[in-house]
Specification:
Number of domains: 2
Largest sheet: 4 strands, mixed
CATH topology of the largest domain: Butyryl-Coa Dehydrogenase, subunit A, domain 1
Shape: globular
Number of helices: 5
Structural class: alpha+beta
Distance between the termini: 49 Å
Number of strands: 6
Helix content: 25-40%
CATH architecture of the largest domain: Orthogonal Bundle
Length: 191
Amino acid sequence: MSYMTEERKMIQQTARDFSVNEVLPVANKLDPVEGEIPMELRDKMAGLGYFGILIPEEFGGLGLGAFEYALVTEELARGWMSVASIIARGNGLWGGISDDQRRKYFPRMARGEFLGAFSLSEPDAGSDLANVSCRAVRDGDEWVINGTKTWCTFADGADFIQPARRFARLAISAGGPGNCISTTAACPPPA
């Protein structure tokens, strides 16, 4: 049995056509000058469901798996790696969130309206998660995050940031410091 079913071949071909016809012409103009992905292109990606590949259908996503996600990202990366990377921003808030938070955030994520960033790299650890020194410690109803991150891809455009810390993730609202929206422990939802 082949992993490449007819449906998967169609998903791959659609992503390839989109990459060649829509992504590559924009990338040829903007990538050399480190330009941002235009909202018009992001809207087209959202229309194809690319921000919600892994999000269940009940929340407005495509409800597909990692294999289909990889097929799409591989084809988008052929045109512009930044475009392939940005769809992860809608497919990445999973662990430690409540059903209410899924209902609130997943539909917006699937439409590309609520995108996140993931902050992993540190000065002394690089991208080695086992050696990350950043810590999140609960202090009453809030979380105190201590540590230094080297960079956070897409932080300036993100609606939430997931700073990596050893053995757990904590997502905070980029709109205001300390507004916790997700953690592997109990956490009050943002206002």
